[in-house]
Amino acid sequence: MKLSKANRAIFIIVSVVCGLYALTLIFPLLYTFVNSFKTNGEFIVNVWAFPKHFNFDNYIAAFEENNILMMFFNTIFLTVCGTFLSMLSASIMAYILSKYRFIGSGLIFTLAIAFMVIPNLGTVASTYKLMSTLKLIDSLPGLLILYMGPFGSTFLLLYSYFKGISWSYAEAAKIDGAGNFTVFFRIMLPQARAGICAVGFMVAIGVWNDYFTPFMYLPSMYTLATGLQDLSTQATTTGAYTQLFAAVIVATLPLLIIFGFLQKTIMENTIAGGLKG
Q1: How many domains does the structure of the chain reveal?
Q2: Fewer Cβ atoms within 10 A, N terminus or C terminus of the chain?
Q3: 224 contacts: CB under 8 Å, gap ≥ 6
Q4: Is residue 94 within 8 Å of 162, Cβ to Cβ?
Q5: Cβ neighbours of residue 259 under 8 Å, at least 6 residues apart?
Q6: Is residue 29 domain-shared with residue 73, that is, in the same domain?
Q7: Are residue 22 and residue 143 in the same domain, yes or no?
Q8: Average pLDDT in the 153-174 region?
Q9: Phi then psi for 209, rounded to 5 degrees?
Q10: Do 153 and 17 fall within a single domain?
Q11: Environment class of residue 62 by beta-carbon count within 10 Å: exposed (0-12), middle (13-18) or buried (19+)?
Q12: In this structure, how many other beta carbons lie within 10 angstroms of the beta carbon of residue 22?
């Protein structure tokens, strides 16, 4: 299809803007990758030059000196379990409030929206005091409890999605004798699969990259986010930036590989979830 001059000009402008935006995303990762193979001396001499030879000592040091495998374990455990619990609690709450009317349901929904307005920093003191009283500070289960809170943007997105799902299948199942749990897990949840996958992917990325929550409530157990921040602080005093770059690449690579294999599925569910919601 031949474009008019005006449309061609718009297409070129949009392409240039998108290309520049893509470059701003790719360049930092490429810069980090290239410099991760340098020695500290090579990096200090010229931060823009390519390495004279590929030096893997930084990657070896990232595993041997910084216990990055334990950081991986903590991060993967929190991401998998935290995402599952967060999606489960938010899905149940969103389903109940979108499909059932009972005394106090409107108040609960209003409180859910109000909680989203309160800044996270505004609740840190009270949350920390509660976690400390329950002796859940510095424990993985304690952090998972925080991640499984049913309110927030996750709840709001799933609420709008469940709101758009027809209730006719559930009514037919109830006529056949299905209970509330059967209706939710066997009928409603599968229909919301696209929306749950789309929101779940965003939640997983958020948990994987979360720095503040583990920093506050899991001080002695490093995740990748807190561990990399600690390495960054050390690099400012020791000058071991190339080792930091190697650790960043190691931390980023798993997500890139997973997204590469599941890109089609993730994008299809994200688009379907967006259209349905």
Answers
A1: 2
A2: N
A3: 68, 71, 72, 75, 208, 251
A4: yes
A5: 266
A6: no
A7: no
A8: 87
A9: -95, 0
A10: no
A11: buried
A12: 10
Question: What's the burial of 14, exposed, middle or buried (CB within 10 Å: 0-12/13-18/19+)?
Answer: exposed
Kindly state whether residues 252 and 267 are assigned to the same domain: yes
Dihedral in degrees, nearest 10, Cα atoms 17, 21, 23, 27: 160
- 141 and 38 inside one domain: no
Rg of the chain over all Cα atoms, to the nearest angstrom: 24
CATH number at residue 171: 1.10.3720.10
CA distance 277 to 57: 49
Complete DSSP assignment for 75-135: HHHHHHHHHHHHHHHHHHHHHHHHH---TTHHHHHHHHHHHHHS-GGGGHHHHHHHHHHTT
User: Are 197 and 266 contacting, i.e. CB atoms less than 8 angstroms apart?
Assistant: yes
**Residues 101 and 236 placed together within one structural domain of the fold:** yes
User: What is this structure's pTM?
Assistant: 0.83
The per-residue pLDDT for range 200-240, each reduced to its tens digit, is 888 998 999 899 999 999 988 899 999 999 888 888 888 88
Structure token pair of residue 5: 């001059």
Print the domain residue range for 24.
5-55
In degrees, to the nearest 5, what angle opens at C-alpha 251 toward C-alphas 212 and 211? 0
Q: Are residues 137 and 159 in the same domain?
A: yes
Spatial separation of the C-alpha atoms in residues 277 and 264, rounded to whole Å = 20
pLDDT digits (tens, 9 = 90+) for 89-102: 999 999 999 888 88
Count the residues in the chain.
277
Place of tokens 């930091």: 244
For 219, the token pair is: 């001080």
For residue 151, is pLDDT > 80? Answer: no
Closest CA to 161 of 99, 112, 118, 216: 99
Residues 137 and 19 in one domain: no
